[in-house]
Amino acid sequence: MNVKIVDKISKDISTVYQAIVQKEQLCSYFTSSSSANLDAGERVIWEWEDAGAKCEVFKIETLANKTISFEWSTGAEAKQVIIELNAITDSQTKITITESEFGNSESDIKAMLGQTQGWTHFVCCLKAYLYANINLRQ
Predict the structure, then answer these.
(1) CA-to-CA distance for 104 and 106, rounded, in angstroms?
(2) Hey, where are the domains in the chain?
(3) pTM for the whole structure
(4) 20 to 30 Å CA-CA from 73: which of 25, 90, 110, 116?
(5) How far apart are the C-alpha atoms of 24 and 26, rounded to whole Å?
(6) Distance of CA 64 to the CA centre of its chain
(7) Which are the contacts of 76, defined by CB distance < 8 A and separation ≥ 6?
(8) Domain 3-132 has CATH 3.40.50.300
């Protein structure tokens, strides 16, 4: 089973892509800190000071203005995340985020629900940042 979030962002695809891969922008709406940009081959540490959490992001692969994929460890096993961007118009982007694979145990289902909430929050925070330069995490 996978987590899958799909939404539309009223910004051009390049703006959305850069907001996700550039650490300065990512820290303006999602993380408290990031050790590096999401560049292919990097190993990045993300931290959320307000939640007392951090994780390592690795096996990063990017295709400019198209996809960002990585693995991260948010629990016992690493999960793969794929963020796909598709232009709807010159000023609208479809974002699809898939995190996989989860089993069907009670703990896996609880983890999936948490990740669904987390990725939905990510997209809401990304929109607030891109539309109004607001950091919803503050």
Answers:
(1) 7
(2) 3-132
(3) 0.94
(4) 25
(5) 6
(6) 15
(7) none
(8) no
